[in-house]
């Protein structure tokens, strides 16, 4: 027995030495990665960052005018800006910048071309010009209804990422001509990355961001306004004791009628000598804007009801009074040697007015069967004609009718048809698009830092990052989700081969590690423990106790307005309640007449339809659980029916 025990001890010792070598190898790789990031061990073969920028400038000078080139799709990239063109007559995606690291050579390339995509015809175009901004990633970009877009900041590095540079320049893009104009940014925000920009009236509003200082990372909590009438930046100053959000980057920053909503983000805090620990933020703040910028104030919003789990890398895309959130990552058990993460691919909506979160799930794709209508039911055109006559009567009664209103059969409903579209036209579009895209019944692969934007009620998701251990995997993909139907994910392309391979290898390695851990449980030899990082002076956030929100209901802030019914389209809602919305439009627009009032009434109807969309979807889900699928047929009470059935 003694001899057998000696052999067991020698075997354990051998395994311990093998594990120590493995840990040492991991530590060396991590040190190598840190040295690249913090520039502690600069490689002589790496090009000087100024020389790289000079080379890009020389290449750009060869373009004498705006050069437009048709492409099959954008080159793979991460951390690019993606926005929707503000031109109402044209549906278009705009993508600028980004970076890509070649996994074979570990060389990083930055982009500065402008990529456009038209969802209507599926055309991709690459636009380059002499006066384009220099290559960068992690910049902030936003479009204004006036037709211009603003770009600020971002980062650039040498090919081997030994040296970093943060831009502080500001550019305006004419979304019609695709021409860039550089602004004077001498008195603008300092250089940064990971910041966000949104709009309010005639302002672009910038918030947060970070700057890599080499040995550590500094985060910002300042706010800047760019006035499109004066083309100048101005920093918003707050009173000395006024509460403001913590410094952060990668947060959500969406517009409202009264200001901007800030949610979540990421920062780093001290965790020992020369160390920093990541901190995930999930607080929510309301920046209440005023024309007099000295009167702008922050207001912290209370958490209530359902909340998404903490995460970063998931900034919201704005869509008609709400934010749409996708994906993200949460890091836990962070130590000097290890970092475990969980990645998400869930979808949420945040209602700005009610300050509530709701989970969005895909429905089973299905063609709703048309229910046979009885002879006493009127056709859609007949209802439209009756609505138009009723609208004209209301306008005439209030002496607001134009002379040409009689000739217009469907001024209000025609606008609705263009924006909401007829169901038949939607089916035709989906049929023509099905030859180019694949419709998936599940949400895209988990990831963080995906670029998102909304085009014509569809959420577009481009790219993103997934990690296995210490290795990053860039996901080359593009998807869109119809936020009205939520009946599937249109996949334009996706490449998950490297991720699938990494998962297979990771499963094998995890099995081996589990065996080693089981063998080491009884080992009495001293081992160096991986010290867990603890944030210094990390005060707990003071949050009030929240009442549990049992019923998944969305408060109605305007109960006096008509409410859409389950499975009722925007078109049908307007035909049913157009007269009521016209009455409201007249009372709130005293200097508007005729067809313009009809347009106002439809705009109010559309806002109301989307305002209550999440609540109606809850009701639709309940009906589907009961087996009720498709359009809900309303009983025509004007015609008597027999009691026998």
From TrEMBL:
Signal peptide: none
Sequence ranges assigned to domain DUF4110 in this UniProt record: 556-638
One Pfam family of this chain: DUF4110
Organism name: Naumovozyma castellii (Yeast)
Composition bias type Low complexity, residue spans: 410-422
Biased composition (Acidic residues): 507-528, 536-554
Residue spans of biased composition, Basic and acidic residues class: 7-31
Residue ranges, annotated region (Disordered): 1-46, 396-433, 502-557
The protein's name in its UniProt record: DUF4110 domain-containing protein
């Amino acid at each position: 027995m003694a001899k057998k025990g000696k052999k067991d001890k020698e075997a354990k010792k051998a395994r311990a030495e093998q594990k120590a070598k493995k840990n040492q190898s991991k530590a060396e790789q991590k040190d190598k990665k840190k040295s690249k990031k913090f520039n502690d061990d600069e490689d002589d073969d790496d090009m000087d960052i100024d020389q790289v920028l000079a080379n890009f400038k020389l290449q750009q000078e060869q373009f004498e005018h705006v050069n437009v080139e048709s492409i099959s799709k954008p080159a793979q990239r991460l951390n690019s800006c993606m926005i929707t063109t503000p031109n109402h007559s044209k549906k278009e995606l705009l993508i600028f910048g980004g970076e890509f690291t070649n996994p074979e050579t570990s060389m990083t390339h930055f982009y500065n071309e402008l990529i456009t995509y038209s969802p209507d015809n599926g055309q991709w175009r690459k636009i380059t010009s002499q006066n384009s901004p220099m290559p960068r990633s992690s910049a902030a970009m936003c479009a204004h209804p006036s037709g211009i877009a603003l770009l600020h900041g971002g980062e650039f590095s040498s090919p081997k990422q030994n040296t970093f540079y943060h831009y502080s320049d500001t550019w305006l893009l004419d979304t019609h001509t695709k021409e860039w104009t550089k602004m004077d940014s001498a008195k603008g925000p300092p250089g940064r990355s990971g910041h966000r920009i949104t709009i309010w009236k005639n302002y672009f509003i910038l918030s947060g961001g970070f700057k890599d200082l080499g040995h550590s990372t500094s985060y910002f909590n300042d706010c800047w306004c760019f006035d499109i009438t004066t083309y100048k930046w101005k920093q918003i100053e707050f009173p000395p004791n006024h509460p403001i959000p913590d410094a952060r980057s990668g947060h959500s920053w969406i517009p409202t009628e009264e200001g901007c909503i800030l949610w979540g983000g990421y920062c780093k805090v001290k965790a020992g000598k020369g160390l920093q620990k990541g901190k995930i933020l999930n607080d929510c703040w309301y920046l209440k804007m005023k024309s007099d910028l000295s009167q702008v104030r922050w207001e912290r919003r209370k958490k209530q009801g359902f909340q998404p789990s903490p995460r970063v890398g998931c900034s919201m895309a704005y869509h008609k009074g709400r934010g749409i959130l996708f994906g993200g990552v949460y890091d836990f058990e962070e130590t000097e040697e290890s970092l475990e993460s969980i990645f998400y691919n869930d979808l949420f909506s945040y209602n700005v007015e009610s300050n509530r979160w709701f989970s969005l799930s895909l429905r089973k794709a299905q063609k709703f069967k048309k229910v046979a209508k009885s002879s006493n039911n009127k056709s859609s055109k007949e209802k439209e004609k009756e609505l138009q006559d009723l609208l004209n009567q209301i306008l005439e009664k209030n002496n607001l009718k134009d002379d040409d209103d009689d000739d217009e059969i469907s001024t209000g409903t025609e606008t609705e048809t263009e924006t909401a579209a007829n169901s038949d036209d939607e089916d035709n579009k989906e049929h023509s698009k099905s030859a180019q895209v694949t419709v998936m019944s599940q949400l895209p692969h988990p990831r963080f830092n995906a670029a998102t934007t909304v085009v014509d009620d569809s959420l577009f998701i481009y790219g993103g990052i997934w990690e296995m251990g210490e290795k990053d995997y860039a996901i080359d993909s593009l998807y869109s989700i119809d936020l009205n139907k939520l009946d599937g994910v249109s996949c334009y392309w996706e490449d998950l081969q490297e991720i699938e391979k990494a998962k297979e290898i990771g499963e094998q390695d995890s099995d081996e590690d589990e065996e080693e851990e089981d063998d080491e449980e009884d080992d009495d030899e001293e081992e160096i423990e991986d010290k867990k990082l603890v944030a210094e002076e990390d005060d707990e956030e003071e949050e009030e106790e929240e009442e549990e929100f049992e019923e998944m209901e969305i408060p109605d802030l305007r109960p006096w307005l008509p409410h859409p019914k389950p499975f009722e389209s925007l078109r049908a809602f307007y035909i049913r309640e157009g007269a009521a919305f016209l009455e409201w439009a007249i009372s709130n627009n005293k200097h508007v007449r005729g067809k313009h009032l009809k347009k106002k009434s439809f705009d109010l109807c559309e806002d109301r339809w989307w305002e209550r969309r999440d609540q109606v979807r809850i009701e639709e889900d309940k009906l589907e659980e009961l087996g009720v699928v498709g359009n809900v047929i309303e009983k025509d009470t004007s015609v008597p029916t027999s009691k026998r059935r």
